[in-house]
Amino acid sequence: MTCGSAGKPLMEVEGSFGALDGGKYVMVMGVIQSCSPEPVIRAVKLTDLSGNALHRSMWPLEVEDLQQNIP
């Protein structure tokens, strides 16, 4: 995942967030530490939104919005 490439899989998580399976729709709140060569985010909160159909239906729209607005 690189800065500005929304929708790419989360490859690595450090810390004790528990199991993070592929295909999950999650919200990460945190601070971007760096963007190059790969983004490093210091996560403060990680929330699994996969169980909510409304949240999952918003995912394609969020990806499209990010791709249009992040260089």
Describe the strand arrangement of the main beta sheet, using strand numbers: 1-2
Beta-strand content bin: 25-35%
Mean pLDDT: 74
SSE series: EEH
Number of helices: 1
Give the low-pLDDT segments. 1-9
Major beta sheet summary: 2 strands, antiparallel
Shape: globular
Summarize this structure as a short list of keywords or feature phrases:
RecQ-mediated genome instability protein 2; 24% helix; NA-bd_OB-fold; 2 strands; RMI2; disordered N terminus; 71 residues; two-stranded antiparallel sheet; alpha+beta; 25% strand; globular
Task: Provide structural commentary.
With about 70 residues, this protein is of the alpha+beta class. The chain has a domain at about 25-70. Helices cover about 25% and strands about 25% of the residues. It has 1 helix and 2 strands. The chain has one helix at about 55-70; strands spanning about 25-35, 40-50. The chain has a two-stranded antiparallel ribbon. It starts with about 25 loop residues before the first strand and ends with a helix. The model is unreliable at about 1-10 (pLDDT under 50).
Could you write a compact summary of the structure shown?
24% of the residues lie in helices and 25% in strands. The protein has 71 residues and is of the alpha+beta class.
Describe the protein's topology.
Layout: E1 26-34, E2 40-48, H1 53-69
Antiparallel strand pairs: 1-2
Protein name: RecQ-mediated genome instability protein 2
Organism: Chiloscyllium punctatum (Brownbanded bambooshark)
